[in-house]
Structure formats: C-alpha cells, structure tokens
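Case study 2.
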Amino acid sequence: MGKVISIANQKGGVGKTTTSVNLAASLAFYNKRVLLIDFDAQGSATTSLGINRSQLKGNLYDALMGDKNLEEVMLSIPVLDKYHMHMVPATIDLAGIDMKLIGLDDHVYILDKLIRKVKDSYDYVLIDCAPALGISTLNALYASDSVLIPIQCQFLAIDGLTQLLNTVRVVQKNLKINHRELTIEGVLLTMLDKRTKAGWAIVNEVKEYFQEGVFKTFITSNVAAQVAPTYGVPILTYAPKSSAASLYKSLAKELIENNENKH
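Prediction:
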C-alpha cells in the first residue's frame, strides 16, 4: 500500500513545488512507483513538468467534482530514459475549489476517497499543496499519512508555522477517530546559502525547534534547480550530474530509509 505525503506550508516561496517535483522524480529514480498530485490552482508543478495546461483533456478539478476518476486524468512523466512517474495535473479551474468542496458531503475527505482507489498501485503519492490553509489543503492532509514541511533558510522561517502545526494537530485528532494517523514526515530546509552566517543560524533555529524531525539533507540555493522548470523537466533530467540532483536523490534515499526502517 502506498504512502501518501502532503508537501505543505502556507507560506509561499519556500520551495514546495520544487521539492514535490524533484522528490517525486528522485523516488522514481530509486525504482519507486510514484504519483504526484498538483493541488495548486497556479499549476506550477504541472508546468514545471512541461505539461501544456490548455491542451489537457482532464485535470484534478474534474476528479474532485466527480466528472472523472484519477486514472482518467493521470499523465506519465519521463524522468530519465528508464524511469517514469505519474502525475495528476492542475489548472486554474482549481481557483474556486474551496467554495465548491465546502458544499459537498464529507468535504474534507473528497481527495482521500479518490486516492484510496489508486494508492495500492504506488509506493509513494506526493501532494503539492497550495500556499494556504483552506479546504483544499485540509483535503490533502486528511488524505495523507504524513506531511513534509519545507522551510526556507531565511529570516522569519518559523514564523507562521504555528498555524500549520495547529491545523495538523486538528487533523491528527480527527483522524484518530477513524483509527488513522497523520505524522510529520519531516522538516526540509531549503534555499540554504552556505556562505552566510544568517543561513546557518536559521538551520540551527529550526533544528532546535524540531529536533530529530529535520531531514539530514539540506537543499542549498542552486541555479540548475531554478532553471530546470523552464525546460519542463525535473532536475534529474535537466542536469543529472549537478549538486541539486545529488541533493534531491539524497533526500529521496533518506525518506525511503526512514520509512523502510519503520517496518
């Protein structure tokens, strides 16, 4: 049975989409069966993987509204010659999704019901969440086994996280009633400028706050990772020998080991 991981932080610009796309590709590199779900109306993960949203015959919105199932809107994404992952794309249709979902029965479980039908086909299902704590992000959290929180190594990095953690606690409490669990997969430090004392100060602050919950892998500031989306491919395809590719593979390996050691 696949593990469902939300990549969430209501603060924008922390590297959520970059993490989602490149972690998914790196898990595929390690022969894991991966499904990436773009749950952001901006569709950044979708465009980062070279998908022309205007030519899509279906997207996540159609599945959430019950017009299609997830398999019908999935696309196969090449990573390197022998590796592939699947993706559920997003379009601007998702812009008003919170208002649409709130009118439905069990409105926080809509995505969960969709994922349950396909999760056995995957080792990992990653959800790229919008930078907000609305109904859509709640849907992602209720569908997930864990949440991965990217934090950029800049001033006020932890500021505002209390709200996300409080939301996670509410979901944890509610899921327990159904004998399910939501854990924190880990905190990922992103955009670290190794040359600055300020960057390392944030690293120490986050480690002090989250203790063992911080991934050992840090994602440093890297030009290749910023350029890859303009070519519509993950970093493993764009620059497989770059330091950024090595870092995301390291993160994927750490995540796999953390999960395999628990079983």
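The chain is about 40% helix and 15% strand.
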